[in-house]
Write a structure and sequence with these properties.
The chain has five helices and no strands. By secondary structure, it is an all-alpha fold.
């Protein structure tokens, strides 16, 4: 099972790196007006890239609890890529900045 979990973790990390430029372009560097949501009109059928990224990170985080996956996480090839993915995906979007600044303003003046 360990060989399969390491392969799945590697695929998950690969997906995070492959989707990172799209995330940067449509969520971090833009106002969010042209965020790709798919072709469905029903919001329940739309998959946002942020939700996909969160799900992948949850899989990686949960897999990190298994002792059998420790060598994968400590691998010299994997650790820098994983840290790069975490840093890249945790950038604040324009919406996050606005929400955060509104919250700070509320805190300072109340």
């Amino acid at each position: 099972m360990t060989a399969h979990s390491h392969a799945l973790l590697t695929l998950a990390l690969t997906h995070l790196h492959n989707y990172l430029p799209v995330f940067q372009q449509f969520y971090v560097d833009s106002s969010g007006d042209n965020t790709p949501c798919g072709t469905s009109e029903d919001p329940a059928d739309q998959t946002l890239l942020t939700k996909l990224g969160c799900s992948i990170f949850q899989f990686i985080q949960t897999s990190g609890r298994a002792a059998s996956n420790k060598p994968w996480f400590l691998s010299p090839e994997i650790l820098p890529k994983l840290l790069g993915a975490v840093i890249g995906w945790t950038q604040m979007t324009e919406e996050d900045v606005n929400r955060c600044s509104r919250g700070l303003m509320f805190t300072f003046f109340n």
